[in-house]
Write a structure and sequence with these properties.
Chain lengths: ~180, ~180
């Protein structure tokens, strides 16, 4: 506070901002009401705020850049694709698990039990040939990366389902390795 | 449909609702990032990243709380990290910075900013130290209250006031220097 009882700039600014304690704010208010100089200083601070707001506002050119980027649709598509990707990955893993379980059921378990392989595992049967073709196709994928998640998901699911269905079908016919 | 309903739907994975939230807040987030970085390409990238991070964290957002300060907090953190990565972060603001200010005869409030055009003011804001720039932008561009800035930046309300006061003093000083230089 100076000799005329005027408050310093920081106190006036805090008064405007409502950051002073009630008693101090009241003291500033009662002084300002009777002090044309402080009223003018407060007015200048208000004006300065308005000019800052105007200076920082987006220009039309800046806003046009944002509009051209089409963020709402682009980001919505991205999160939507992300969810599909997550589902695809989950489905792919399930398919892989099914394929592994089917392989375990059809070949590994009998082998561990010392049982001879038979039924659809026999050489010359169409099922091993189909499986071999699927594996060759999968191997070719490694050399030419897939273009979409479907390229991975569909074959994995198909392989898992084919092996499981084969096992179930051959089991009913008594040809599954489990029936040795 | 209200913002809260869009948020609830987006929390359930509704991409269209998320797109509506982006549409609602993109100007604020982009403008904030632009004023913080000064580069349009960076601002667009940071805006996209802020929205994607918000989407990933949306499940934990309390819909009874205001969304805009929460979103701008994400943007502010991203901008700070970005500026650090660019190694253009100004030195931390200490009182020593302000010691250079002519305390005996400071530029009068209002008159200095009034005399300069928008580009000069924007340039001066862009040269503010990062914490001051963030506070000034959140208040004068995004129109956040002191309380909202306090919550967004996790600093006391009094510190927000101090940042704004000091930022404006620096702005006046720099604008006077620019005027003298030209």
């Amino acid at each position: 506070m100076n000799g005329k009882g005027c408050w310093d700039d920081m106190t006036l600014d805090f008064f405007r901002m409502g950051l002073l304690e009630a008693a101090e704010a009241e003291a500033v208010r009662s002084h300002v009401q009777g002090c044309p100089t402080c009223q003018a200083r407060l007015g200048a601070l208000d004006l300065e705020d308005l000019r800052l707001e105007a200076a920082l506002a987006l220009t039309r050119e800046e806003a046009d850049v944002l509009m051209a980027a089409d963020l709402p649709d682009r980001l919505a598509a991205q999160v939507s694709g992300g969810r599909r990707g997550a589902w695809g990955l989950a489905s792919g893993l399930v398919g892989l698990g099914l394929a592994a379980a089917a392989g375990l059921q059809g070949a590994v378990l009998p082998w561990l039990q010392g049982l001879p392989l038979g039924g659809w595992m026999s050489a010359g049967h169409w099922a091993p040939q189909l499986t071999s073709r699927l594996f060759r196709w999968a191997r070719s994928l490694l050399w030419s990366p897939p273009e979409s998640q479907l390229d991975i998901l569909v074959p994995l699911l198909a392989a898992g389902l084919v092996i499981i269905l084969l096992n179930l079908w051959q089991r009913r016919r008594g040809l599954s390795p489990f029936h040795h | 449909m209200t913002e809260r309903e869009w948020i609830r739907r987006a929390q359930g994975g509704d991409a269209e609702a998320f797109g509506a939230l982006v549409r609602l807040h993109q100007n604020g987030v982009y403008g904030f990032c632009l004023r913080m970085t000064g580069r349009r390409e960076d601002a667009l990238d940071l805006t996209s990243e802020a929205f994607l991070r918000a989407y990933r964290s949306l499940a934990g957002f309390d819909v009874t709380q205001p969304f805009r300060p929460w979103l701008l907090r994400i943007a502010a953190n991203l901008c700070r990290d970005h500026l650090q990565a660019r190694q253009k972060r100004p030195t931390p603001v200490e009182d020593a910075v302000l010691a250079d200010l002519p305390d005996s005869d400071p530029p009068p409030p209002g008159q200095v900013l009034a005399a300069h055009d928008r580009a000069a003011v924007r340039q001066a804001v862009a040269e503010l130290p990062e914490p001051y720039r963030t506070t000034v932008t959140l208040h004068y561009f995004n129109q956040l209250s002191y309380q909202e800035i306090s919550e967004a930046l996790n600093i006391p309300v009094g510190t927000v006031g101090t940042h704004l006061y000091r930022a404006k003093r620096l702005l006046r000083k720099r604008l006077v220097e620019q005027e003298v230089a030209t």
